[in-house]
# Entry
Amino acid sequence: MRKLFSISLIWLIRAYQAFISPLLGAKCRYTPTCSAYGLEAVKKHGPWKGGRLALKRFLSCHPWGKSGYDPVP
# Structure
């Protein structure tokens, strides 16, 4: 079940990268981008912790948030 959830999250992030991100343009304030961070977090920490880390990162990516280099812990 855990592997299936990981694969689902990775698929959703890659679909976003392939189809939605090109339409929006480069707007991420962080390096690596939020979607790349999400992929790495899920691959490194699994679907639950990685998903939480990715969600926290996505929610912090706004004009008044932080910016710069922020690697996956």
About this structure: The two ends are 24 Å apart (CA to CA).
